[in-house]
TrEMBL record:
SMART domains the record matches: PbH1
Transmembrane segments: none
Key words of the record: Glycosidase, Hydrolase
Cross-referenced InterPro entries: GH28_Enzymes, Glyco_hydro_28, PbH1, Pectin_lyas_fold, Pectin_lyase_fold/virulence
GO molecular function: hydrolase activity
Key word Hydrolase present: yes
Sequence similarity: Belongs to the glycosyl hydrolase 28 family.
Pfam entry (one): Glyco_hydro_28
Protein name: Glycosyl hydrolase family 28 protein
Amino acid sequence: MNYYNIQEFGAKGDGKTDDHAAIQAAIDACHEAGGGRVLIPAGKTFLSGPFKLKSNIEFYVQSGATLLANPDETIYTESAFRENKGEGTIWIGGENLEMVTISGGGIIDGNGTAFMGEELEDAYELKPFHIFDPRPHILTIVGGDNIRIRNVSFKNAAYWALHLIGCNDVAISDITILNSLKVRNSDGIDLDHSRNVRINNCYIESGDDCICFKNRREYAEFGPCEDITVTGCTLVSTSCAIKIGSENMDRISHITFINCIIKNSNRGIGIQHRDEGIVSDIVFSNMIIECRLFSDTWWGKAEPIYVTAYPRSSEDHKDAGWRLPEHENKGRVGYVKNITFSNIRCKSENGVFVGGECPEKVFAIRFNDVDLEINKSTAYEGGVYDCRPCTGGGMIKGRTSGFYFSNASKIFVSNCYVNWGTEKPDYFGNALEADNVKGLTIENFEGEAAFPEKEDAIKIYDSEWVIQKMSEK
């Protein structure tokens, strides 16, 4: 293998000098020679502005080395979303790449808090900007094929950490992402119009979504996001640990999550569908989910499992227009179908929520062996489900049920259990509640209301074709 040590191309590694020119020169030389390893050597901190990866290279950040984003906002000039300039910039980028590996055991640090405003109680203020948001995403690859990211740590993203757009044949394994839990928009991994992806054995902490699947309008030509497996990951999020959406103008489908742990998160699994695309054929199994409430700064209300399809609010985006279909001024939503949750243990301050614009938009949702323990554990206000960003507001106030289904069809609940903890505010309600559900099957369900002397375990109204084979505790 050919080796290209960035110090041989002039990198100082003193943590003060911007070494981006030396890094880019090493990458270019490696690429032009037909491939090899670009080495970020151990024992030093290399400050760097933006640079581009190229095909047929291994970008090797050696154990003991740190690559640190330059905090000078003025040097970040390339938008992460093409003509949409309001959602961050590119630090480490690359387009139409083949055979690229990022590895080595070292640290790639986005220097995120340097781009933030004042530190508040549970979040950093976002600095105001006009049109162009300079906050850099750590890694943005557009149109990649055969991408490997392994055995490396990413830290302190100012915006998203890893954004893979239109990529095929991607393997992400044994990486750590440690973003500040107070930095908004600091996602971990965002797969955007990507396919044939494997994510394995990763640990991710993020202020925003840990793992998220999207189909953004800015990259519509790349098609659906599909054929993805996620295995053996541990996730912590101040927002949503696993999110499908909200941006989805195409199709997100054929995805499995297996053997994952979610802890200390605002929302566990969130299918947050708000656009005209579709979400289908997704399986979540063998998982432990622990959630809690946070302030309204963060989207989510401690729902361990959340499946929704509501039209996007047009008011929130009337100025930019990037969230709505071209030449349209009103949001519309496609359907969510064939979603399975199996062998999942949940502890939270809230219950499972399934809801749609109408019953036809959310259907064939299966819960098999899903146990819930609901207990009040923070001082934040409960009794609400968070449906932002949707038409008509976003916050749905009401009783906290173990399972709450509203405007859905073909819901199957089998071998599930609801248990209430010792801290029970008066808004805790039924073990299962269903409103306007067209086809609900309940089999071997165990649990009671939070206050069984006042309410029944199951409350069903305005629903059709209900089949119950239930044993109450």
